[in-house]
């Protein structure tokens, strides 16, 4: 089995804190004549998101304003790159490494289109500080909410092929520019306006153990799955107004149908896999509830306070919103201090497709 050890992720949030009241008041004012607005807002508030962070103020042109597609696209990429650059030093410090030690960079970014992409621009920006121009690059451009989990599966594969390598994983999304588009007025789009936040998260996956390195999560196995016939359940769409994120009304129910395939992988050794901890993409209440059922865990002795294995996912959702592909890495960061050495768990990310990526983890 290859050695693949994840160091504590570092999270860089957008600099503008936006409360649930800020968003719902803006929606109520902007769409006052929209039929069923009150029902939409009740559903939006039920997401449980208390705060999210945007790279720009809520009422800026590229968030709630009328910016062109070109301006939204440029703002989303520039802000994502800036957050990514700020996240890298913290990830390296957590790993006890320097830029010169990195052998591969894996990036995930789905909220804008540009060429060159995030991986190349990270190398260009960080080269003066020591990031080598000859490292391997794996850019992910449309995994969206599954990006963080998918990046970890690829990091595992890279260190298996290159023993001893150090892989820098960076996920950066500026979801405010994509999901707060004022032309979107469906029930689902109102939910997404309150659900998403902006962030970049970086971490290092190392193919070697070092003395005094501190706690790590070891990747023991990985899994990828595409649920058949779900192409339009969650999907991104481009038009002259910008990037839009769409979903069908039964999208969250469909997520639950992943469970049999997930259980087959988890229980593949013939005994039921009972995780000591769970690191699940904080995509929303329905996604977490379906994951809880599939993983056969509960909310702990105090269900109201959510003290069970998914508590860090619920905390991330409440305090940051859905961070897209970065979400699962934020949950991993929150989970770092509690499992005991030897505890086994699962990391799980869902994305458009419907695509799923997962890792079995052991706390070292």
UniProtKB/TrEMBL annotation:
Cited Pfam families: Chal_sti_synt_C, Chal_sti_synt_N
Active-site residues per Swiss-Prot or TrEMBL entry: 145
Domain Chalcone/stilbene synthase N-terminal: 63-206
SUPFAM superfamilies: Thiolase-like (SSF53901)
Superkingdom of this protein's organism: Bacteria
Start and end residues of each Chalcone/stilbene synthase C-terminal domain: 222-358
GO terms for MF: acyltransferase activity, transferring groups other than amino-acyl groups
Gene Ontology biological process terms in this record: polyketide biosynthetic process
InterPro entries: Chalcone/stilbene_synt_C, Chalcone/stilbene_synt_N, Polyketide_synthase_type-III, Thiolase-like
Keywords: Transferase
Family: Belongs to the thiolase-like superfamily. Chalcone/stilbene synthases family.
Protein name (database record): PhlD
Organism of this sequence: Streptomyces kanamyceticus
